[in-house]
Specification:
alpha+beta; 14 helices
């Protein structure tokens, strides 16, 4: 019953949080000449603090942007350096004030803005994002900023190690971003049959006529606005050198968690402001690539040993993101998908049922603090709530997956692990003719997982079940 001790087992989390706040105060005093008045930790994937401070010249606010729990050693500094290059080239990003060693962060101007959806499934389920007319006009205006980012010369980024060797051939351009994430996924044991098939499909369907590599935001569509005005371009942690159509695909990937409105209209505006024609089939290809990368990242957010990782958001995003990747393939290849699935009657598992319900009761009794905020407590309680559902529907979920794989392989399989091993072997054969069989199977599997997460049949008013918006005629 005893696992190896975690390096965090003996960490005094309250003391650690207090040390981080002290580090923020010290940095503001030393580098900004100010006295901190208030520090607020934001509800986001990563540690971020809104910091208000006073100087002789008045009141100021900055954002301390911390490191994602699963980020690489240099990822945060990479984002800072990218933003510095963009600022030097006239792109409207918040001004960077500098680097902080503890807490590991960089500091930028705080942008006073209208409320913006955080782009997370659990918040979208509770409060679906709506798009005001002003935000829509700002979105249209953002396309000009996106085109300007794409026009920044690639050579401007050569001093940044990760961008120092731009891809050259159409194949390198198409796979540069997804292959890197696939390798990271392999190292973290985050590649399953879903991700394996998608990577195989991406390799097989490279748009060979696309041969120009430019700077791309990587997770485009994220910006701060006030009224109709774009105030600042944000979130450049997966910026890269690649095909501009990757960024155009991001709008489909982020919608509706962050409402992007009429996506084809955004593409038409991009054509107007950039002078470049948008190839919608290429956007479809990069929709698969962007969603697969995001789905692998969601699996990594679920790594249980990571302090501060959002496990339940990772599960929600994985089921939704990866499913829509298969919907992108289905649109490109004219495949029919089945959304008419239904949960069976739940089967109560005595021990799991009792133990998980006990966890739900006792999590509600946990005290909150600056190191364990109420929203973190809510997300923690959602884990046993999902597992309670999973225990009640697991037999159905695994039985259906094994049945469909057995029909594909022509062999029965005793366990889901055995069936998945057989699926890996089929994927390795890389037979395009099998796409019409594999895509619906994978799609139904992910849809069933979403049904267990939600505890309902597919409900298309729920953002978790949102179908990918089509873009092809």
């Amino acid at each position: 019953m005893t696992d190896h001790a975690s390096s965090l087992d003996n960490l005094d989390h309250e003391a650690h949080e207090a040390q981080q706040l002290a580090g923020i105060r010290e940095w503001v005093a030393a580098h900004l000449g100010g006295e901190v008045q208030e520090i607020t930790r934001l509800e986001r994937w990563r540690p971020q603090w809104k910091v208000s401070y006073a100087t002789g010249d008045g009141h100021r606010v900055v954002l301390f942007r911390g490191n994602r729990p699963v980020a690489g050693e240099n990822d945060l500094r990479f984002e800072m350096e990218v933003m510095q290059v963009l600022e030097a080239n006239g792109i409207q990003v918040p001004h960077i004030h500098g680097w902080v060693d503890f807490p590991k962060a960089f500091v930028m101007d705080w942008v006073d803005t209208d409320d913006r959806a955080p782009g997370m499934v659990h918040t979208a389920i509770e409060n679906p994002d709506t798009l005001s007319e002003e935000r829509w006009q700002a979105l249209l205006g953002y396309m000009q900023h996106l085109a300007q980012m794409h026009a920044v010369p690639v050579d401007e980024f050569r001093h940044i190690r990760q961008l120092s060797h731009p891809p050259q051939t159409p194949r390198e351009i198409a796979l540069h971003q997804s292959e890197r994430m696939y390798r990271i996924g392999k190292k973290t044991d985050s590649i399953d049959t879903i991700a394996e098939f998608l990577q195989t499909w991406l390799r097989r369907n490279v748009p060979e006529h696309r041969n120009e590599a430019r700077f791309i935001a990587g997770d485009a569509g994220q910006f701060m606005s006030a009224g109709t005005q774009v105030l600042a371009v944000m979130d450049l942690e997966i910026a890269n050198i690649g095909d501009t159509h990757w960024d155009l695909a991001c709008f489909r990937g982020r919608h509706p968690l962050e409402n992007m409105g009429d996506i084809p209209a955004l593409y038409r505006r991009y054509e107007e402001v950039s002078g470049d024609r948008v190839d919608l089939r290429v956007v479809g290809y990069y929709t698969v690539a962007f969603l697969q990368l995001s789905g692998i990242a969601a699996r990594m957010f679920m790594l249980p040993e990571v302090r501060g990782g959002n496990w339940i958001e990772g599960a929600l995003e994985y089921s939704s993101i990866m499913r829509r990747a298969f919907e992108a393939i289905a649109e490109l290849q004219g495949l029919e998908l089945d959304f008419d699935l239904h949960l069976p009657a739940p089967v109560k598992k005595e021990w799991e049922d009792s133990g998980l319900r006990k966890l739900l009761v006792d999590i509600e009794r946990l005290p909150t603090s600056s190191a364990f905020a109420p929203w973190e407590k809510r997300l923690l309680s959602d884990i046993p709530r999902f597992l309670l559902n999973y225990a009640r529907y697991r037999d159905w979920f695994e039985r259906e997956a094994m049945r469909e794989i057995s029909e594909l392989t022509g062999h029965s399989h005793a366990t889901l692990a055995e069936a998945d091993k057989a699926m890996f072997e089929i994927i390795a054969e890389d037979d395009a003719a099998r796409d019409a069989l594999i895509v619906p199977i994978m799609h139904r599997r992910l849809l069933r997982l979403g049904m267990i997460l939600a505890g309902t049949d597919p409900d298309f008013a729920n953002p978790l079940f949102h179908k990918l918006d089509p873009i092809l005629d």
